[in-house]
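Subject: Re: docking follow-up (S-adenosylmethionine)

Dear J.,

Thanks for your patience while I sorted out the input files. As discussed at Tuesday's group meeting, I've set up the holo structure prediction with S-adenosylmethionine included as the bound ligand rather than trying to dock it afterwards. The sequence and the ligand SMILES I used are pasted below, so you can double-check that they match what you have on your end before we go further.
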Amino acid sequence: MDDVSRETPPVPDSARGVFGVRWPQAQAYADLLATEGELRGLIGPRELPRLWQRHLLNCAVITDLIAHGSRVADIGSGAGLPGLVVAIRRPDLDVTLIEPMARRTDFLGEAVDRLGLENVRVLRGRAEEVPATEAEFDVVTSRAVAPLDRLSRWSLPLVRAGGSMLAMKGSSAEEEVAEHAKAMRRAGAVEVEVSRVGMDVVEVPVTVVRARKLDRPNSGGNGRAADGRR
Ligand SMILES: C[S@@+](CC[C@H](N)C(=O)[O-])C[C@H]1O[C@@H](n2cnc3c(N)ncnc32)[C@H](O)[C@@H]1O
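The structure tokens for the complex came back this morning:
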């Protein structure tokens, strides 16, 4: 890791303020992604020049939508995006990274140890196979994991009643919501909305689909939400 500084991508001016007291961990994670992460094929070499803008800062700003002290699960974390960044920026959160691929969970475990993060645990497995005893998260995040219908079926069972899923999506999020609205409601989603965050931090604001889970179970299985909508 001695030649890390040569490999480290340029750091935007806003980055230090975004991470505050966790700046050393943010820098260490960026270094790890740019070295080990790239060597082990977890991040493409073409991503390195835009590591901060497109990955670390992009993921960091979604924490603006997460309440203090929340229990968070990130499904399909890959190399830790957004879950590890969320945990770095917000030590008040309790974060579980859920990822099925051993190569990726090995990297995540090593990253957690190296950065000395005490608010993160790594769970190897598919989101839909996580035991019901684990399924009481306030918030479930994801980025680039699946279309919203499947993503809702994987995320919402892990969310406590009244909690939310936060799916990072591209600029066509509204179209995707319209396409999958019915499937999302069937999975228990209510109050689906598209938010844009990070205007003052990243070049392109980050689009997040936020869906709250029904306060009480959807009885009868007729695809009808508690507010009567389909
Ligand atoms: C395209 S990668 C995105 C990784 C990371 N979220 C990011 O934005 O860089 C999709 C990730 O989802 C994981 N994945 C696929 N199916 C999954 C499932 N059923 N449950 C949890 N993770 C899953 C894959 O192993 C992979 O790491």
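A couple of observations from a first look. Residues 23-39 form the longest helix (17 residues). Residues 1-6, 219-230 have pLDDT under 50 and may be disordered.

Let me know if you'd like me to rerun anything.

Best regards,
T.
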